[in-house]
């Protein structure tokens, strides 16, 4: 009975550490839940994507192809914040990607499929080579990104992705928490060279060193973020 209770408590603790990104905040205005962000499959369970080849890697939508009710306006060079429910409960890197909505589509109707995504942000740990790695987003209730000032004006999908590495020592152990916001950018210079465009799924492999990763022992000497390098203006 004690063993059963301990296992149940550990399972409950693991579930409580799971999280979603349900709201945006721009210029001090916070959206409603799933108002500017496509409602995700894990909106109740808070559970992760664990198969990087899954179609859920695009936006983890509850209903693929169904857009959010609204698209939020943001200035190029401005900041978009995603709220976290409840907080980033696991260690690992934070990434943001953007995809330009093609002609004939809107942010609400674009499915985000194909090689359309470019990375605008990634972070990594401090304390490499020690047993005290520190990940910048761990424990955060909000995560934010600056929209590059050099992007072209127009509508985009903005994809937030946090990769939890606490169980990533075996294939399929990494946990990805994903959401896509619908944004309309104004004031950009349009001079950005997006470089390598990637698709989701397709950008990552299960054996990429940033996906298959021994977090604890021996202490890791480096961390290589999966996917392309972030773009620069």
From TrEMBL:
Entry-linked CDD domains: LPMO_AA9
Name of the protein described by the UniProt record: lytic cellulose monooxygenase (C4-dehydrogenating)
Signal peptide: 1-17
Assigned keywords, A-Z: Carbohydrate metabolism, Cellulose degradation, Copper, Disulfide bond, Metal-binding, Monooxygenase, Oxidoreductase, Polysaccharide degradation, Secreted, Signal
Matches recorded under Pfam families: AA9
Enzyme's top EC category: oxidoreductase
EC number of this enzyme: 1.14.99.56
Reactions performed catalytically: [(1->4)-beta-D-glucosyl]n+m + reduced acceptor + O2 = 4-dehydro-beta-D-glucosyl-[(1->4)-beta-D-glucosyl]n-1 + [(1->4)-beta-D-glucosyl]m + acceptor + H2O
Statement: the UniProt record of this protein carries the keyword Protein biosynthesis: no
Keyword Oxidoreductase: yes
């Amino acid at each position: 009975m004690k063993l059963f209770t301990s296992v149940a408590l550990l399972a409950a603790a693991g579930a409580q550490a799971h999280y979603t990104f349900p709201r945006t905040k721009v210029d001090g205005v916070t959206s409603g839940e799933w108002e500017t962000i496509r409602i995700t499959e894990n909106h109740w369970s808070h559970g992760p994507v664990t198969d990087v080849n899954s179609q859920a890697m695009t936006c983890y939508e509850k209903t693929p192809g169904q857009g959010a009710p609204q698209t939020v306006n943001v200035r190029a060079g401005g900041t978009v914040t995603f709220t976290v429910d409840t907080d980033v409960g696991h260690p690992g890197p934070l990434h943001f990607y953007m995809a330009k909505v093609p002609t004939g589509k809107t942010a609400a109707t674009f499915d985000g499929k194909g090689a359309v995504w470019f990375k605008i942000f990634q972070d990594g740990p401090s304390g490499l080579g020690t047993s005290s790695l520190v990940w910048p987003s761990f424990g955060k209730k909000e995560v934010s990104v600056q929209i590059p000032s050099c992007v072209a004006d127009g509508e985009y999908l903005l994809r937030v992705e946090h990769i939890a590495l606490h169980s990533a020592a075996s294939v399929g152990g990494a946990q990805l928490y994903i959401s896509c916001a619908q944004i309309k950018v104004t004031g950009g210079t349009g001079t950005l060279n997006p470089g390598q465009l990637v698709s989701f799924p397709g950008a990552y492999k299960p054996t990429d060193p940033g996906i298959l990763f021994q977090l604890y022992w021996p202490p890791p000497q480096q961390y290589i973020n999966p996917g392309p390098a972030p773009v620069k203006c």
